Known about the structure:
By secondary structure, the chain is of the alpha/beta class. The chain has helices at residues 40-47, 69-75, 92-98, 106-119, 121-125, 136-148, 166-181, 193-199, 217-221, 224-230, and strands at 2-11, 14-24, 29-33, 55-60, 63-64, 77-80, 154-158, 185-189, 202-207, 210-216. The longest helix has 16 residues, at 166-181.
Amino acid sequence: MLKVDNLQVYYGGIHALRGVSIEVNKGEIVSIIGSNGAGKSTLLNSISGFLKYKEGEISYNGNKLGNNPSKIVKMGICQVPEGRLVFANLTVRDNLFMGAYLRNDKNGINEDFEKVYQLFPRLKERENQIAGTLSGGEQQMLAMGRGLMSSPEIMLLDEPSLGLAPLLVQTVFEIIINIRKMGKTILLVEQNAYKALSIADRAYVLEQGKISASGLAKDIAENPKIQEAYLGSKK
């Protein structure tokens, strides 16, 4: 479905991604774990077309991806960014509608509104509330709901639990599982490695711009070196 082959990305003189190759198959949850600065967000931003890569190739359903984010969204790839980045001065409903800005299927958009409200009842309750007044957890729900409004086949989730209280972290991961049940494929970048590996099918470990390990998520979680480096806390 999604294939990244030998990706090389630079920030000026900094070699951010060094020959990264990953694959994501239809219906999977694939997790990318690694420390801060390892290149996780860089990888997602490259897939989404926000960053140009110097070498390598990214393909989706056999078609090479370019660097046009709008075209990539139309192809079925949507990124939910780190930090949520909701439109703070717009209502919840208007934020969701912005997620469908490339669509012209009115009936489908209305159906997806209902699906999002079923998945996130809190958003339905706050439909006319200004997004900037929502709690952090509610804003994360809104960002994920906005992503779903683009009708994606695959969602790129960048640190969805960042800054949330433990109880809300659990809620976010339950929502990710439910999104997969809706037929979506998920590529998950997440600092909370224990939680990420607990719901993923497969995983990659990114260290200093390189893939240092990959395999079934349960095998990655049982690797003593990875446990020492990333799984010290299970909260």
